[in-house]
Amino acid sequence: MIKKLIGPATSLAAPVTLVAAWWILSAGSTSPYFLPLSDIVDGFQQTWTTERMEDDLLPTVRALGVGFAVAVVTGIATGVALGLSARARRDLRPITEFLRSMPVVALVPIGLVVLGPGQRMEAALVAFAATWPILVSTSDGVRAADRVMIDTARVYGVSARRRLLRVTIPAAMPQVMAGVRIAVAAAVGTVIVANMLASSSGLGYLVISAQQSFDIQETWSGLLMIGLVGSVLTCTVVLAERVLLGWHRQYRSLERTAP
Amino acid sequence: MSTRAVVSTASADPRTGGMRSGAVRRWSRWAEPALVVLALAACWQAVSVLDVLPREDFPPVTAILQALVSDLQTSELWAAVGASMEAWVLGMLVVVSIGVPVGMLLGASSISYRMSYLTLEFVRTIPGIAALPILLFIYGIGQDLTVSFVVLAALWPLLIQAMYGMRDVDPVAIETAKVYGVGHIRRVLLVDLPSCLPYLSTGLRLSGTFALIFAIATSLIVGGEGLGAEMARAAVVGDRPLLYARVLLTGLIGLVVALGLTTLERRTLRWHVSQRGAQS
């Protein structure tokens, strides 16, 4: 019982101490850029009125959500296909390697030119950026799925479709989710950059225009909100992981041995 | 994995034996992927020339390649590439000199590890891009901004990997070294560092690709000198082939960096216990 409480307590100690230290150390800050944390929190409340949320937060979150959903579907589907066929993997390798290592921000100007500014472009870029991590780790996971399990299922006359859905894909799930988790950071970063470069509303736009008008408090508020959006998305993915992988042997043992 | 595929294509046809199977193997390893690339380029060309997609927005491959070749002969482009790569190299030097020691130090004791790993795992998911405006206040536009932004964004993967690496050092090896009277500094150099190396090279690969993204993003967003600014310029002028050419070049640089870091990772991993079984 006590052990159960000490675990979370030690891992929460660092963030709590850091925030407290920030609060205390910044309290008397006269630096124009590093505001006291209390001022930042005040500013956050002032900045994020309901109206502001509708105008600036919602479009970004919507583009992010749509793009991310598209990425999850295409990433997993293509990843499974590539994982199953060694030949497809080899033949498409130059393309996948190229697109995957393409610094995704480089595509923002093209997205802007082709799709024009707006949520459509943002969602498309998010989808592109988030697809690759998911695709690559899904294909790795499918490739590494236990041969013995698959062969056993085949011997017992399980049809190919059921084999794929019931054996191969569940076996690949931990890696799929690892890819999804990496994709979160890519997706949020991309939507913000697209926002900063090419929008007249949205979270990135708010931050960059506040910066340009030297409104430091509002810059910090936007920054905090970006962090919050990223954190919420990460937490959602972690929760989904718990639900989807609770049954998985490896995952369970990982949870248990996790310090 | 490609070898497995090759074996199956070679054995599918029993007549191809001896000398020919080598040729077949080489052919299918290089020619098929190359053909796919060529076919895609041809498709793009056709779609663009026949105006299936607006030619204005999707210039033909030949025009893009032409723009790339003539762009590569200008000194402005090379100056921009130089500036971006300089920021990348400087940023990575700082990342390595902070990330490795701090990560190893945090991983060295189980208390500091437990206290920091959740926080760090969390920090790494916060999009680094958020810090750009604040850094812009402090440094203004220039190389300082780019380097500090690169450091801030790319530090975490390496630091976290270094921490995990230290958790994975064989305690028996440490005790053995202690028994033989190996001093503290020598122990770090002879035991800890080599056994962390696989983790460090993985961290280096992750950090390196991040760093490149942010090195380019900075000049794309705020201007200044760099590949990103060159892309923005081509977009503003409305020269589509040039824009595509510069994006293509950026992709190629990304590919070279990624392949280089992956090769480095494989090299450093080769001797490691975890890899020995896989190699044979």
UniProtKB/TrEMBL annotation, chain A:
One of its GO terms (biological process) is transmembrane transport. InterPro entries: MetI-like (IPR000515), MetI-like_sf (IPR035906). It is a multi-pass membrane protein. The chain crosses the membrane at residues 12-35, 63-86, 182-208, 220-240. It is found in: Cell membrane. Residues 57-241 form the ABC transmembrane type-1 domain. GO terms for cellular component: plasma membrane. It comes from the Bacteria. Keywords: Cell membrane, Membrane, Transmembrane, Transmembrane helix, Transport. Its main location: membrane. Pfam families: BPD_transp_1 (PF00528). PROSITE patterns: ABC_TM1. Belongs to the binding-protein-dependent transport system permease family. PANTHER family: ABC TRANSPORTER PERMEASE PROTEIN MJ0413-RELATED, ALKANE SULFONATE ABC TRANSPORTER-RELATED, MEMBRANE SUBUNIT. This is ABC transporter permease. It comes from Nocardioides pocheonensis.
TrEMBL record, chain B:
InterPro entries: MetI-like, MetI-like_sf. The chain crosses the membrane at residues 87-106, 118-139, 145-164, 203-223, 243-264. CDD domains: TM_PBP2. The keyword NAD does not apply. One of its GO terms (cellular component) is plasma membrane. One of its GO terms (biological process) is transmembrane transport. Residues 81-265 form the ABC transmembrane type-1 domain. Keywords: Cell membrane, Membrane, Transmembrane, Transmembrane helix, Transport. The keyword Transmembrane helix applies. Its main location: membrane. It comes from the Bacteria. Belongs to the binding-protein-dependent transport system permease family. This is ABC transporter permease. It comes from Nocardioides pocheonensis. The lineage of its organism: Bacteria, Bacillati, Actinomycetota, Actinomycetes, Propionibacteriales.
